[in-house]
């Protein structure tokens, strides 16, 4: 578990960055926001990449997934649509454990500023539509599923316990 990466997926506004930073600190790993990494790697903002096309952004996201998966001992908060290309999940599973932070659309719309999210510029209904479109892919990709429906500290503790149990089950299965 020391060098294995933790990859966090979920809807925009689900808490990926918040929990990723806290989890990285507790596990003594480096935290990386995948969107920030894409901007650094590509030399363009997310908005600029999307202005070309969503495919342009998704291509950049796949290149970044490959670069991040080549690292060790990191916690990565992925963009909400990383699951749109199954190859990204395949890439991350080679060196990481995928955690899906599941947060209800009702909770997301109460505190996310949709105007700052490129795919959510069409308003709050888009959150509900994306959730329905993506929920099964998130669940299928996840090694561990954590519900973000309580206080941050409680969810973080659940996360740590579920990760620990997941790694113990892997060790027991290898014997």
TrEMBL record:
Residues the record lists as binding Mg(2+): 17
Chain positions recorded as ATP binding sites: 13-18, 117
GO biological process, one term: chorismate biosynthetic process
Cofactor binding note: Binds 1 Mg(2+) ion per subunit.
Keyword Amino-acid biosynthesis set for record: yes
UniProt-recorded Gene Ontology molecular function terms: ATP binding; magnesium ion binding; shikimate kinase activity
Needed cofactors: Mg(2+)
Catalytic activity: shikimate + ATP = 3-phosphoshikimate + ADP + H(+)
Localization in the cell: Cytoplasm
Residues that bind substrate: 35, 58, 80, 134
Pfam hit, one: SKI
Predominant cellular place of this UniProt entry's protein: cytoplasm
GO cellular component: cytosol
Listed pathway(s): Metabolic intermediate biosynthesis; chorismate biosynthesis; chorismate from D-erythrose 4-phosphate and phosphoenolpyruvate: step 5/7
This protein's UniProt keywords: Amino-acid biosynthesis, Aromatic amino acid biosynthesis, ATP-binding, Cytoplasm, Kinase, Magnesium, Metal-binding, Nucleotide-binding, Transferase
Enzyme Commission number(s) of this protein: 2.7.1.71
Group of enzyme by EC: transferase
Family: Belongs to the shikimate kinase family.
Function: Catalyzes the specific phosphorylation of the 3-hydroxyl group of shikimic acid using ATP as a cosubstrate.
Record note on quaternary structure: Monomer.
Protein name: Shikimate kinase
Organism for this UniProt entry: Megasphaera cerevisiae DSM 20462
Gene (name only): aroK
């Amino acid at each position: 578990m020391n060098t294995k990466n933790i990859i966090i997926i979920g809807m925009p506004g689900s808490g990926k960055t918040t929990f990723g930073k806290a989890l990285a600190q507790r596990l003594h790993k480096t935290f990386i926001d995948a969107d920030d990494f894409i901007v650094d790697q590509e030399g363009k903002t997310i908005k600029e990449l999307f202005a070309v096309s969503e495919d342009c952004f998704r291509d950049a996201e796949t290149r970044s997934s490959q670069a991040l998966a080549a690292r060790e001992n990191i916690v990565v908060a992925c963009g909400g649509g990383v699951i749109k290309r199954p190859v990204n999940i395949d890439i991350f599973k080679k060196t990481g454990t995928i955690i899906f932070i599941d947060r209800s659309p009702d909770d997301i719309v109460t505190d996310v500023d949709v105007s700052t999210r490129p795919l959510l510029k069409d308003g709050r209904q888009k959150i509900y539509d994306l959730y329905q479109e993506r929920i099964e892919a998130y669940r299928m990709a996840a090694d561990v599923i954590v519900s973000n429906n309580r206080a941050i500290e409680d969810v973080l503790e659940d996360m740590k316990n579920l990760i620990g149990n997941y790694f113990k089950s892997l060790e027991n299965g290898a014997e």
